[in-house]
Every structure is written in C-alpha cells, then in structure tokens.
Amino acid sequence: MKKTLFLLFSLSTLFLVSCSNDNSDDQYAEYIVARPLVMSKAEFATSVTIIAPQPIEESGKVYAYGDFIFINDKYRGIHIINNSNPQQPLKVGFINIPGNIDISIKNDYLFADSMMDLVVLDISDINNIKLVNRLEDVLYNNVFFPMEADLFEYEDYDYDTEIIVGWDTTTERRLRSEVEQRNGGVVFMDGLMASESADSGTGQGGSLARFKIVDQYLYAVDSHNINIFDISDLDSPKDLEDVFAGFDIETIFNQGNYLFLGSMSGMYIYDITTPATPTFVSEFQHGTACDPVVVDGNYAYVTLRGGNKCGATESGLFIVDITNIENPELAESYPLDGPYGLGIKDEKLFVCDGSSGLKVYDKSDIHDLQELNHFEDIVTFDVIPLETHLIMVGDGVLYQYEYLDSNIKLLSQIGLD
C-alpha cells in the first residue's frame, strides 16, 4: 500500500563549533553539512546482494539468531558472524542492503528495511542466501536524516531518477548569514526520499531495535507510526494499515500483549491483544532525549541520552513502575554519562554508557542499584543478553561476555574492520 510521507524538519537551531576571535572572521562559523549518497532507482531495485565479508564502516544494531550474529553497517547492510563457538566468532559474509537500519528473523526468513522497501531473504542456507520478496513503498516514512547536521546540500539530487540511501557529513566553514538565511524557517523534505518476549523460531534484537516480530506479525516503527505486516506466510508478507503512534519514535520492545515504544519525549504503551490494530494504552513522559526501553516484570528501564540532537535532558537511567499499565510512574532514576542500549538477564542490568563503557548492575532492589562491574576504555552501543552469554557491539568491535554468579568476564572480541 502506498503511504504518504510528510516530514517537517526544523533546522532553526544552529550548532556552532568554533569561531575566530578575529573580528573579520566573526561572519563565519563551523557547520556540519550533509550531502546525500544516491543511486539510481533502477540500481536500487536490484541492489540486495550477498558478498564476501567486508570491513565495517559504522557499527549499527545487533541481532542474534541461532548460531549467527547479524550486525548492521549503517545504511549499507548486514555483516554475518558465525558464532557457533563464541570464543572464536568468524565473519562469513555481508548482505548488501542499501539504506538498511534494522532486521528481524523468524524461521529462517530475514526481514530488513531498504529505505522505503521491505525485503525478505531466505537464510536457511547461510552459504546460499536468497532474496525471495521485495515489498515496495511500504515503509514510506522510514526516513532517516543526520540530525546533527546544520545544512543539507541536495540541489543536484534528481527526484525522478535517484534514491537517497544515506548521507555524507563534513564540517565546513560557512558564512553565518548564508546559514541563517537558508534555515530561517522550516524545510519540507516531502519527496526528498522515496522514502523482549521471544517467539519460538524468532531471533533476538537489542534495545535499539525498530523491528519486532510477535507471533504472526512484524511491527516496524518509524518516527511517527507502527507499520504492521502479517507474516503468517513468511515469504509473502501482507502490508496492513499503519497506526499513528506519536512523534520521534525510536525503538520498540515487546512484553506479553504490549508494545513499548521509546521516543524522544517519552515511552508509549500499546495493546496488541488484537495484533493487527495496536491500541494506545498510556504514556510516560520525560524531557527531550534519545530513549531506548526494555521491560522486565513490573518495571520498564529507560536510558535517556541528552545533548546534541537528543535534547537538553540530562543523561540517566529511568526506572518506571508499570504495575498499573494505564498509569506508569517514575520509580527511580540514576545519572549516567551518555547511554545507548541496555539489557536484562535475571537480576543483572547491562547498560551501554557510550564512551564511558559497559556498566553492570544488580537490580534486585531498584531503589539501590549496585554496580557489579564497569568495563572502561571501550565505546559501547547495544547489548543482547542471551541465555548462555552476553553479546555487545561497540565501535567496530563485537564483544562477548560469560555470565558469572555475581559478575561477567570477557569471553571474546572480534574487530569488524
């Protein structure tokens, strides 16, 4: 089904990096300029290919399925890691999917976004992966922008023949007046882009995931909507009606009959008792910040990352009491430096605190979290607590940790470059 894209993107707030003390240079400042990476529409339609292992350019989200780990390379595709021996993981291939951010897998069928399209691959033979379906224009609001950018240069982009599959950002010295004139209002990007509860047989994503499979349905959130697909016929998904869910939606998590959506302004809860039509239940509001969420029992754990594009809210961990699902309330909060993903295994809480490393807590008493370990001097992005061990993706590195009674220890690490 064709979906309507309407994106109002305000660029009125400028990020000034530096300015010279020389009065003659007061007219200039450093700005982040974004230029689109494009390919022809004809090339895009046949762009999904399986190739040999590649160096990673920008670590994205991580997904575990069977003996394999799949790591997104932002906007480029998926790195495949054979993890049958977690002490010696092995890179075995790369799925080239331009514009890819998320995946989800069920019974050997991999679902992935490729900009506005949903692609389906048969991975039953990891050495002979096959593209079995491509649903065009079903993720039409699946638009991503480098939110840190001050300027977008896309004058040479041909709307009729090209597709934007990513962005290249550079820091450039520009006239203040030029930037203020161009960003004096709002920019309408319409047309710029043609654009966890675990099931048996379903893989497991991290807390930053936008895709989630629950039973016979795939839920894919974009910045405003829950996109819903009936996947009872795995190689032939049916695109159902979207559900408007709010603004600045970033992540999705499932527990029981509920979806928990993390957004830059709060956490939204939706009932999926009728799975084809999720219904709003309640929301928990916080200040503007990037916001992944995981749920365990009667508590939702939310990391807030402030600063830069994520907003002014101070970074921290919010623990929300959802005993009354219709009235979630803040139970406790803890300061953090710049957190991204998080995960839970039994009474252990794992928090990726960005450049401050991986932090492990005992959450037996949510009002008095006890730090069990702190792996410093690494950049951390997202974690998946598996039954037997923990996997974490950082800046171009895949880490795996062994569970101990009251701690964890490093099992292996592999560079992805």
TrEMBL record:
Pfam families: LVIVD. It comes from the Bacteria. SUPFAM superfamilies: YVTN repeat-like/Quinoprotein amine dehydrogenase. The keyword Electron transport does not apply. InterPro entries: LVIVD, Quino_amine_DH_bsu. PROSITE patterns: PROKAR_LIPOPROTEIN (PS51257). The keyword Hydrolase does not apply. Keywords: Signal. This is LVIVD repeat-containing protein.
